Amino acid sequence: MVADPELPASWRKTFMTLWLGCFMTGLNFSMTMPFMALYIETLHPYGKFELNLYAGLAFAVTYLAQAIVSPLWGNLADQKGRKLMCLRASGVMTFTIFAVGLVHHAWTIVLLRFVQGAFSGYINNATAFMAGETPHNRSGAVMANMMTANVTGNLLGPLVGGLLAGFAGYRVTFFVCGAMMGIVFLLTLFNTKEHFTPIPAKKMKPMKEIFAQLENKQLIIAMFITTLFIQSALMSIAPIVSLLVKSLMHGTGNVSFVSGVVAAMPGFGTLLVASRLGVKMDKIGPLKVLVFGLVAAMVVFLPMYFVTSPWSLGFWRFLLGIANAALLPAVQTVLTVSVPREAFGRIFSYNQSFQAAGAMLGSMMGSLISGLFDYQAVFLVTAALMVLNLLLIWKVHRPLENEE
């Protein structure tokens, strides 16, 4: 996409900068979050249920805050532009991530994570930024390529974070991540150009009117619900992956490093096929690719229930990454080609609210189920979510095929 001669140099520079910004944001997230439970464990001798609960809350409150405030930021994005939203997110994350490295109590982490969630959203706003700058006939490829940035960061983050935490401790990892988000802020400020005409608040169409003009309202709502289900399934194991790996290793060996490898495995799978699936979406349509992803995810989640070693878990998570490449990019492509450009900020912000709500529900669901039963039981529930999601998409997809 960057080498395409039909796209202007300013577009390529903006794309490369936002790609790098999403990469570094994903890197920072994955450098710290897989080890959050282990970090909390060093603050106080918590019991298993209490530790799982704190780890779940540290994830969930961020997404709770996102779900509440994202529509407000989306409304502002359609008035002021998406670049300002990227700067807001990266600027606040610089301070909150750094501050987590200074805390001495789990509740302080929960509070900082809530503040971070209320002001975060760099990746979603960068995606909306590029959606507004890109022709519709190339949206699938661009959305998939933007996803590779986050995925590559998530891929390398656990490995880098595991090594850094092993050598310098968990606190230093947060300090490094905070500094990196400061770099993202500066790159976005000076290296991106948005072709955006501010819309006065009085002239903005209300969302009720925009929805009334949409041809496929049910499809848009189904995409919001799909985002919630997908994110719930993907985040259900995230808060406790290091604890699951620790139990599979029976508390011996370099748990931090192995946890990092296991957490990174989906990234390998996604990175392997994301670009190809993006091109495929532009040829056959994103809904067909989305159905494939849901079926694949459902099939992959079930064997995870029976894993007995971290390496077998890592293998199935690698396959999950391949399925993941066909999920959220397909949803974002459907939204990009189905709504008017002047509503991108609000539509993507609503989608981010559903994504955040899904991450919050998934985090708490995984923590509670693992606390009450065992860690692997989480995978049965996530497989069931994929089945429900598949039925929803099938119900919406069939009428559209008949119309075509």
Radius of gyration over C-alpha positions, nearest whole angstrom: 20 Å
Order of helices and strands: HHHHHHHHHHHHHHHHH
Q: Which fold does the CATH topology refer to? A: Growth Hormone, Chain: A
DSSP strand (E) fraction?
under 5%
Would you identify the CATH architecture? Up-down Bundle
| Tally of strands | 0
List the helices and strands and how they pair.
Blueprint: H1 9-32, H2 36-43, H3 48-80, H4 82-100, H5 106-119, H6 122-133, H7 139-168, H8 170-191, H9 207-213, H10 217-235, H11 241-248, H12 255-284, H13 286-304, H14 310-324, H15 328-338, H16 344-372, H17 377-403
Helix pairs in contact: 1-6, 1-7, 1-8, 2-3, 3-4, 3-5, 3-16, 4-5, 4-6, 4-8, 6-7, 6-16, 7-8, 7-12, 7-15, 10-15, 10-16, 10-17, 11-12, 12-13, 12-14, 13-14, 13-15, 13-17
How would you describe this protein?
This is Multidrug resistance protein. It is found in: Cell membrane. The chain has 404 residues and is mainly alpha-helical. It has a single domain (9-190, 213-403), classed as Up-down Bundle (Growth Hormone, Chain: A). The chain contains 17 helices and no strands. The protein has helices spanning 9-32, 36-43, 48-80, 82-100, 106-119, 122-133, 139-168, 170-191, 207-213, 217-235, 241-248, 255-284, 286-304, 310-324, 328-338, 344-372, 377-403. Helix 10 runs antiparallel to helix 17. It is globular.
